[in-house]
Every structure is written in structure tokens, then in C-alpha cells.
From TrEMBL:
Keywords: Cell membrane, Membrane, Transmembrane, Transmembrane helix
Organism: Streptomyces prasinopilosus
Annotated localization: Cell membrane
Domain ABC3 transporter permease C-terminal, residue spans: 274-394, 736-851
Organism lineage string: Bacteria, Bacillati, Actinomycetota, Actinomycetes, Kitasatosporales
Membrane topology: Multi-pass membrane protein
Transmembrane segments: 269-295, 318-342, 362-384, 416-434, 446-479, 500-522, 732-757, 782-802, 822-845
Lineage: superkingdom: Bacteria
Pfam entry (one): MacB_PCD
One GO cellular component, as annotated: plasma membrane
InterPro entries given in the database record: ABC3_permease_C, MacB_PCD, Macrolide_Exporter_MacB
Name listed for the protein in its UniProt record: Putative ABC transport system permease protein
Region: Disordered, residue numbers: 60-81
GO-annotated molecular function: transmembrane transporter activity
Family: Belongs to the ABC-4 integral membrane protein family.
Length: 859
């Protein structure tokens, strides 16, 4: 009980010094709990949506997706004949049944030809208005569509785009473009996560989406009272045979959940990973805090030992303080995490994904995980300072104002750190020298971990040398004040090393990702320059296939010399060694593709692969299956028949653009796949007539004005788009890493604040002999700057080493250009100096306000 009271008294006595450490715990726990609450809420939202929209039993085509995805290679959804609806209605136990149609392989535009698709990446769904839809949506204005000239829209989409009754909109599908006026607006009774919905009457939907009447994408059956979904499924399956897919409401909901599960898992674990980095950085802050508090209470600990306190009691006292810190920080972090989740929901709402706070889900495991993590991490971080406190002898403590340095421990730590750093460097070398990416990745991961831990351990030894160099370059210009700042940073190398290490971790990851991202852009740009021999690339940024109408519009552009079509499909391959490979990708293109994309071949000419009943394979595939020029492969095309194709070319497996592709001609594909099942074009290549590139660029954009879902890019545009995509990904990662940087800044603030307290008497003496307040504040700011630059120098150097090694692995995949983004590296280094200045503002201000006489009188 006495130990608890002592710990509580010390905790409250140093509550100001504990605050920053508590904030570090709070931020880390908040990020973990916020991530869990946010992803759980997303799951709840989708679960409610799928449960509400699924009918008791759903019948669809055999090749339809369980999760309701309706996109096919030919742009039309898989359908069932209307006779299935009649058969289902006749099944005993069916109270009612209705035919439904919906498709996601289309675009909807307003009167100005602007796309109405969600910006969040959610689907655009066009279908017929059914009783099943009426269960989850209510018509709030107007009426349901009747006839081909009417269409209904969901309320969220209408609000986002300012749509009103009577506005004309167009539906662009593989069948053509259909225009209609808004007859009604329907609002959701459950949360719509971000889809855009449009409804036509049944006959119009059949013509617009499929191009024929008497078909549906699925039949929705409602069970009669007393009939379970499972029983109804059994009866419907018996009546229809095995030619159709039959799912219960629960199975349909589970399939929908599975479709979004992958996306949410990636988001969840990525964010938790960055929270883990913040926890790691926070450990350094907590270790520094307790180390300095123990050092400042050395005399007090000596008195406690002198009056009978045991080592265990002293140790326990410090750990109890850490426990209190962990509990307070974690409790506040859990609450902040819920607030963070709500903020993330609002942010997602601003980009089009609607998540209602009514669905806010806080599982009991979330606060439990937050509290457990926060408390365990804090107590573990405080263990070493507590252990050192318990080892202080009473006499040594009573005669020394600070904790005695353990030189032997320092040398051991430095030796272990040096060995680990050397081992990490060796692992990185082996990664860079690896012949296979999988093997190299293992060495890279090991090298990153070993070198990071090694740098953390050897930090105090590095601090002595690096800070001196930085002092010469940065501090000496400030005269005596700069030299005092340098000596202060060198006074306790362990503290400086730990503080710099917190900043080092975040900046190492920033530098590594910057090098990798920049190298990817440079490599892809270099590869495009070498391989792409066409002027323009036309494709959809959302992955939509090109409709025949859009392809014809491009082909009719007079300024073009040629247009190359590019299709993608799957087939079952039976290779000469007897292996059958299911659902293998194969690319079909016009013969001019061999000119538009200069693919390197190791045997034969790519142009020969476009001869009748011919194809190409890539080198690795040929080696794995004993294929040579003239070999034949049995190819059973999806949605078509089988044929025997002759290998006329073997391409290099090192290609970046179209890596691993196997080619045949569109004419060969058309021989085995019926016209109504031919896949649509994935993209088009277009080449302008000589000297008419600018005119062709403008003309192409004009030709596709009515098809806003497609983008025309020349090679410069394509490179910029690639750079922007990678840049957006890196910016998102940098934003998540900012949490670790913030915690590291708190560490610098905490170190300086406690350092000022530790040097109170010294500061008083310096002020007494003439040091001005301005000079004192400058000294502390410069000390902070040099510590921040020390951490930045280590982090950037380490990160560039990681990034360069990662690029060597990417070179095995064809990304062979190493590009160091020096503007980013230099900018981060300079920014670190400003981080140091910012971190020193409060400690410097407090030091400048000290009363000189009181400071001198401090023991």
C-alpha cells in the first residue's frame, strides 16, 4: 500500500512531465481503436445493406458471380430466360416471384455529358424497379418509371449532382445510349455506402442492358409462411435442375460481404500497421521520460533505499507509475479513437462513401484491445528505467544528483548494435544480389529489421560523432551559444540517441518509400519510351470496357492513321507436357499491336503470333512447360470452343509493360468465340497521321465527348497519370506516417522539457553570469534542432539504403532504374530542422521564464 501511495504521489507530482508521454499513448491507442471502430462500422453498414436487399431465394445464371457482380467480357450481364420465372412461380412454397435485371457495366451521364458515377469508386447500377427494391427504398418524390422515356434515381445521387424531376440523363451501355427523363427519386431506408442507382421499367431495362426481351439477370423468390429459405432453395433447385445458381438470402448476403471483405482487410491491417509504428516510436518517448525521471529522483530513491525500501519496491514503484500512465493514456485513447472513427466516416462521406453514425459499431473487443496494448506497451517501455532505478545503491544515490552511468552496459549495447547493423547490411546485400524476387524479399525484410534495431542500439555511439559534425556545420556559426547547445546534446548520448531514433523510424520509412516510388515512376517512364510506339492510349480509369460505339467513334476520327484494338479473356490451356492450366489469361489484339508495343522476343517475331491459329508465350512459361517455336497448345476459350494454336513467338519475361502476356490475334479469337460473346476492348492504341499529332489529339477528345468514362492520353499524359497515381498512394502513406512523426516530435519536446528541469541549477548559474533569456532560448532551440537533424540524418540514410535494395528486387521484375528523389530527401532534412525548432518552443519559453535565484537554489 505504501508503494502504491508513493507511486501515485510521484505520478501526480510529475503530471506535467507525464502529459506528453500520455499523449503518445493516447494517439497510438486512438489510431488502433479508431481503425477497428471504422472498419467494424463499414462491415455493419454493408451487412445491413446486403441483408436488406437479398430476397429469400435468388436464381441467377450458372456463370453469374455469387456476390452480384454483373460485368462480363462482352459488356452484358449473364441472364436467365423468362421461362425460369414461370417455373419458380410454380414451385410449392413460393409465395411470389419476380424477374429482376441489373448491370454495372455501363455509365450514366447528365445532360452536359458529365458522368454521374460515384467518385468513391462505388458501383453505378442500372436495373428495373422491383418489389424487392421497394423493401429497402421509398419513393420520396415523383413516381416509378413507366415507359422508355422515364428513369428513377436514388436520392443520394440526386443530391450530389443536383438532379431534379424532369432532368434528362443518358445510360451508355454496350447496346447503345438511351436517354430518359427523371420521373422519380427514391431514398434508402438503410445506409447506402456509395453506389449510384438508376431504375427503368422492366421492358426498357431489358432492351437497354441486354438488347433483347424475355430475359432477367436473376429471379427473386419470396417464401410462403412456414417455409424456410433452405427448404425453398432445395425445392427450387429440384424444379430447375442444376443449370442455374440458387442462393438463399443468407448465402447472397455472405457473398456480398466476401466481395468487400478483401478491401476492408487491406485498409484495416494497413492502418493498424502504421499504428504499430506509432507505438514503436512512443516506446522511445516513454523510455526517455522514465529514464530522466529516475535520474532526477536519484537522491529520493537513495533515501527510500536508506530507510528500508527494497530493490523490488523501488522497481515496483516506477512500474506502477507506468501502469497509471498507460491506463490514463489508453482510456483517453479509446475515447479519442471513437471520435477518430467518426471523423474518418465524415471524410469518406466527402468523397462519396456514405457511412451513417447510426451504424457506429464499438465492439467490446475494441476498448479491450486498446487498453491492453496501451498498458502493456507503456509498462514494457518503463521496465528498463525501473530496473535501473532498483539497482541504484543507497550510498551512490545519496552522494550523486543523477543516476550513475553504466559504461559497461553502454559498450555492450554499442557492440550488439554494431553486430546487428553489420548483419542487417549483410542481409540487404544478399537481397540486392538475389536472383529471385521471393528469395530477395525475405533477405530484405530481415535486413530492414536487423539494421533498424542495430541503429537504435548503436544510436548513442553514433550521436557522439554525428552531433559533433552537425555542430561544426550548423551550430558553430552561433558562437558560444551554439557550442553550449552542442555540449548539451552530447551530455547524455543515450538520451540523444533514443530521441533521435524515434524520429529516425518514421523518416526511414518516408525515405524508403520515396526511393521506391520514384524508381517505379522512372523505370516505367523509361520502359514506355522504349516500348510504346503509338501516339495515344484510350481506356477507362475505372476499368470499364470500351463499348462498340466508342470504338467506332475512335476509328472514325479522320486524323488517325491506324487504331489497334486490344482485348483480354481467359482460356484453359493444355500444354505439350500434358499440363492443363485453368482460366489462363490470353490477350487478343490486331496485328498492328506488334508495332504499337515493341515487345522483346527471345525467339521468333511477335508479328507472327497474329497469323491464323497462332499465338505467343513468354519465356518463363515456355521453360516451365517445354514449349519451343512450332509447339502447339490446346486452347479452350471461355464462352467459346477449343482450338489448337501454334506458338510462333516467345517473348521476354522481363517486360514491364504487359508483363507475362500471351498474345493471339482478334481474328483467331473470333474463330472460336461467337460474335455475341466476343469480349469488348480493354483499351485502344491510336496513331496519328504524319505531322497531325496535335490535331488528332483534339479530334479524339471531340470524338469521345459523348463517352466521358473513357480518357484519351498521349505518352506525356500517360506518364503524368502514372506519376500521379503513385504520388497519391505515397501521399496517403505519408499521411499515415505523420502519426509516428507527431509522436516523435512529442518525444523531442518531452526530452527537452525534462532536460531543462534537470539543468535548472545550471541554467540559473548561466543566467547569473550574464546569459540573456534570448541566448538561453536560442541554446535550447539549437539543441533541439541538432537532435532532430541527427535523427533525420540516420533515418534518411537508412531509408535510402532500404529503398535502393528494394529497387534491386524490382529490377528483377523489369523496373531497372534507380532514382533517388533528392528534392524530397533534402526537403525532409530541412523540414526536420523546423520540426526541431517547433518542438523547442515550449521548453525554451519555460526555461527563459525561470527565476534566477530560485533556479540557483534548486537541489
Amino acid at each position: 500500500m505504501t508503494v502504491l501511495k508513493t507511486s501515485l504521489r510521484n505520478f501526480l507530482a510529475h503530471k506535467g512531465r507525464m502529459a506528453l508521454s500520455a499523449v503518445a499513448v493516447l494517439l497510438s491507442v486512438a489510431f488502433v481503436c479508431g481503425t477497428l471502430v471504422f472498419t467494424d462500422t463499414m462491415s455493419t453498414t454493408f451487412d445491413k445493406l446486403f441483408a436488406a436487399t437479398a430476397s429469400d431465394v435468388t436464381v441467377s445464371a450458372k456463370d453469374a458471380s455469387d456476390g452480384g457482380e454483373t460485368t462480363s467480357d462482352n459488356g452484358k450481364p449473364p441472364v436467365v430466360p423468362a421461362s425460369v420465372l414461370a417455373d419458380v412461380r410454380d414451385v410449392e412454397g413460393v409465395e411470389s416471384a419476380e424477374g429482376a435485371l441489373h448491370s454495372t457495366s455501363l455509365t450514366v451521364v447528365d445532360g452536359d455529358k458529365e458522368s454521374l458515377s460515384p467518385t468513391s469508386g462505388g458501383p453505378t447500377i442500372v436495373g428495373n424497379w422491383t418489389a424487392n427494391d421497394a423493401r429497402t427504398m421509398e419513393i420520396t418524390s415523383g413516381a416509378a418509371p413507366e415507359g422508355p422515356e422515364q428513369i428513377m434515381v436514388d436520392a443520394d445521387t440526386a443530391d450530389k449532382h443536383g438532379l431534379e424531376l424532369g432532368d434528362e440523363i443518358g445510360v451508355i451501355s454496350v447496346v447503345g445510349t438511351h436517354t430518359a427523363k427523371i420521373s422519380g427519386i427514391a431514398d434508402w431506408s438503410v445506409t447506402n455506402p456509395g453506389a449510384a442507382l438508376f431504375f427503368l421499367d422492366t421492358k426498357t431495362a431489358q432492351q437497354v442492358l441486354i438488347g433483347e426481351s424475355g430475359v432477367f439477370t436473376n429471379v427473386n423468390a419470396t417464401a410462403a409462411d412456414g417455409v424456410s429459405d433452405a427448404q425453398l432453395k432445395k425445392d427450387v433447385t429440384a424444379a430447375l435442375g442444376g443449370d442455374y445458381k440458387v442462393l438463399t438470402a443468407q448465402e447472397s448476403a455472405e457473398a456480398g460481404q466476401k466481395d468487400v471483405e478483401g478491401f476492408m482487410s487491406v485498409m484495416k491491417y494497413a492502418m493498424l500497421g502504421f499504428a504499430g509504428i506509432a507505438f514503436l516510436v512512443g516506446i522511445f518517448l516513454i523510455i526517455n521520460t522514465f529514464s530522466m525521471l529516475v535520474a532526477q529522483r536519484t537522491r529520493e530513491i537513495g533515501l527510500m533505499r536508506a530507510i528500508g525500501s527494497s530493490r523490488k519496491q523501488v522497481n515496483r514503484s516506477v512500474l506502477i507509475e507506468a501502469l497509471l500512465l498507460g491506463v490514463v493514456g489508453s482510456v483517453l485513447g479509446v475515447a479519442a479513437g471513437v471520435g477518430l472513427a467518426v471523423g474518418l466516416m465524415k471524410l469518406m462521406g466527402s468523397i462519396g462513401m456514405e457511412l451513417s453514425t447510426d451504424d457506429l459499431t464499438v465492439a467490446w473487443t475494441t476498448p479491450a484491445i486498446g487498453l491492453l496494448l496501451g498498458v502493456v506497451v507503456t509498462v514494457l517501455a518503463a521496465y528498463l528505467p525501473a530496473r535501473r532505478a532498483g539497482k541504484i545503491s543507497p550510498m551512490a544515490a545519496l552522494r550523486d544528483a543523477g543516476a550513475p552511468a553504466d559504461a559497461r552496459a553502454g559498450w555492450i549495447r554499442g557492440g550488439v548494435g554494431t553486430l546487428l547493423t553489420a548483419a542487417g547490411a549483410g542481409a540487404l546485400y544478399l537481397a540486392a544480389a538475389a536472383d529471385k524476387a521471393a528469395e530477395g524479399s525475405m533477405w530484405l525484410g530481415l535486413g530492414v529489421v536487423l539494421s533498424l534495431v542495430g541503429f537504435v542500439l548503436v544510436g548513442p555511439l553514433l550521436a557522439s560523432g554525428v552531433v559533433r559534425v552537425l555542430g561544426v556545420v550548423v551550430l558553430r556559426v552561433f558562437g558560444p551559444v551554439g557550442r553550449m547547445a552542442e555540449r548539451n546534446a552530447l551530455r547524455n548520448p543515450r538520451r540523444t540517441g533514443a530521441t533521435g531514433a524515434a524520429l529516425m523510424i518514421g523518416l526511414a520509412l518516408v525515405a524508403c518509400l520515396s526511393v521506391v516510388g520514384s524508381s517505379m515512376v522512372a523505370s516505367a517512364t523509361d520502359e514506355l519510351d522504349k516500348t510504346v510506339g503509338t501516339d495515344f492510349i484510350i481506356q477507362s480509369d475505372t476499368g470499364q470496357l470500351l463499348t462498340p460505339q466508342a470504338v467506332k467513334a475512335v476509328q472514325d476520327t479522320p486524323e488517325l492513321e491506324r487504331v489497334t484494338e486490344y482485348k483480354w479473356t481467359e482460356a484453359d490451356f493444355t500444354t505439350p507436357d500434358g499440363t492443363t492450366l485453368k482460366n489462363t489469361a490470353i490477350t487478343a489484339a490486331d496485328p498492328t499491336y506488334a508495332t504499337d508495343l515493341r515487345v522483346e522476343t527471345v525467339q521468333g517475331e511477335l508479328s507472327d503470333a497474329y497469323r491464323p491459329d497462332s499465338m505467343s508465350v513468354h519465356e518463363k512459361f515456355a521453360e516451365d512447360h517445354g514449349i519451343r517455336l512450332g509447339s502447339t497448345i490446346d486452347v479452350a476459350f471461355r464462352d467459346g470452343s477449343a482450338g489448337e494454336l501454334t506458338v510462333r513467338a516467345i517473348t521476354s519475361s522481363d517486360a514491364v509493360v504487359d508483363a507475362g502476356a500471351m498474345y493471339t490475334s482478334i481474328d483467331t479469337l473470333a474463330k472460336y468465340v461467337p460474335a455475341d460473346r466476343m469480349p469488348l476492348d480493354t483499351l485502344l492504341f491510336a496513331t496519328a497521321k504524319e505531322g497531325k499529332q496535335d490535331a488528332a489529339y483534339t479530334a479524339l477528345k471531340d470524338s469521345l465527348h459523348d463517352y466521358p468514362q473513357y480518357t484519351v492520353r498521349d505518352q506525356t499524359d500517360y506518364k503524368e497519370a502514372l506519376k500521379d497515381q503513385i504520388g497519391q498512394l505515397l501521399n496517403m502513406i505519408y499521411g499515415l506516417l505523420a502519426l509516428a512523426i507527431v509522436v516523435a516530435v512529442l518525444g523531442v519536446v518531452n526530452t527537452l522539457a525534462l532536460s531543462v528541469v534537470e539543468r535548472t541549477r545550471e541554467i540559473g548559474l548561466m543566467r547569473a553570469i550574464g546569459l540573456s533569456r534570448r541566448q538561453l532560448r536560442r541554446m535550447i532551440r539549437l539543441e533541439s534542432v541538432v537532435i532532430a537533424l541527427f535523427g533525420a540524418l540516420l533515418g534518411l540514410g537508412l531509408g535510402m539504403g532500404w529503398g535502393a535494395t528494394a529497387q534491386q528486387l524490382l529490377a528483377l521484375e523489369g523496373l531497372k532504374v534507380l532514382d533517388i528523389p533528392w528534392p524530397t530527401i533534402i526537403g525532409v532534412f530541412i523540414g526536420s530542422a523546423f520540426v526541431g525548432l517547433f518542438a523547442a518552443l515550449v521548453p525554451a519559453f519555460r526555461a527563459g521564464r525561470m527565476n534566477v535565484l530560485n533556479a540557483i537554489a534548486t537541489e
